[in-house]
Design a protein that fits this description.
The chain has 268 residues and is α/β, with parallel strands linked by helices. It has 2 domains: 7-190, Rossmann fold; 201-266, Orthogonal Bundle (Helicase, Ruva Protein, domain 3), CATH 1.10.8.100. 34% of the residues lie in helices and 19% in strands. The chain contains 11 helices and 9 strands. The strands form 2 sheets. A 7-stranded mixed β-sheet has the order 4-3-2-5-6-9-7. Helix 4 runs parallel beside helix 6 (153-161) and helix 7 packs across helix 10. The protein is elongated, with a radius of gyration of 20 Å.
């Protein structure tokens, strides 16, 4: 398939057969599972996934690529092509049976990977697992622990919802055109039970967002509109530390205290 990669879509097409095989092996697709591939591009992993499952949904925003995929590999099974923006798609509408959950995979465009991850976290009720090719830096951020350099909002929110398993790294040469960064393949598995108790998830998300929008500020200053210093101290936290030193349990405790006091409800 001849196609000039489009920068506005962040297109870098995978072509290395060994890497493709490694990815498919890690996903381990089986007949009867419902897989959804985001950004199939020229179909590097689309064909082996369809061959393994017999049915595959793909979401492709580029109309030219979507048209080229439509009708391909008919002998392998049913390829359902959705010419949509993944950021605006309700993935749960793709479910074909109430007793199934989606397995979401893809080589995510690096320019929208973080907002797309947050979009998918909102739809975990219908997702079994996710396997993504991402910029290595993004995977490191997702897996980072409190106090580490890469730790931030993405780390806290993804780890609250999922187990993060970085699997392997991939060099630029596996893509056309080669990106300027290294890539990594990661598995995200939604928790059967959240690792911490959160009374109000909207409040929790807001606390985490506010904390990391002021990374250089102390905890008391970053969250001054949401919680007072005595409450922070009552939780056993130092108001003078920076938010990146707080672990998931500490963020949950803060959010629960703020929720109990009604700050989030007032929008203060």
């Amino acid at each position: 398939m001849s196609h000039i990669p489009r920068k506005r879509f962040g297109q870098n097409f995978l072509h290395d057969p060994k890497v493709i095989a490694h990815i498919v092996q890690a996903i381990d697709p089986r007949p009867g599972q419902q897989l959804v591939e985001i950004g199939p591009g020229q179909g590097a992993i689309t064909e082996p996934l369809l061959r393994a499952c017999g049915h595959l949904d793909v979401v492709e925003v580029d109309r030219d690529l979507a048209a080229a995929l439509d009708g391909r590999w008919a002998e392998l099974g049913e390829l359902a092509v959705h010419t949509r923006d993944a950021l605006k798609l309700d993935f749960c509408t793709l479910l074909q049976a109430s007793d199934r959950r989606l397995r979401v995979v893809g080589n995510l465009p690096y320019n929208i990977s973080t907002p797309l991850l947050f979009h998918l976290l909102e739809q975990l009720r219908c997702i079994q697992d996710m396997h993504f090719m991402l910029q290595k830096e993004v995977v490191e951020r997702m897996a980072a622990g409190a106090g580490e350099q890469d730790y931030g909002r993405l780390s806290v929110m993804v780890q609250y919802h999922c187990t993060v398993q970085p699997l392997f790294t991939i060099g630029p040469g596996a893509f056309r055109p080669p990106p300027r960064v290294e890539s990594a393949f990661v598995r995200l598995v939604p928790h059967a039970q959240r690792p911490v108790r959160v009374a109000d998830e909207t409040c929790f998300a807001r606390v985490v967002r506010e904390a990391f929008s002021h990374r250089r500020k102390t905890l008391r200053n970053a969250l001054r509109k949401m919680v007072d210093e005595p409450t922070i101290r009552e939780l056993g936290l130092d108001p003078g530390i920076r938010p990146e030193r707080l672990d998931l349990e500490a963020f949950a405790a803060l959010a629960n205290a703020i929720s109990d006091q009604g700050f989030a409800a007032r929008g203060d």
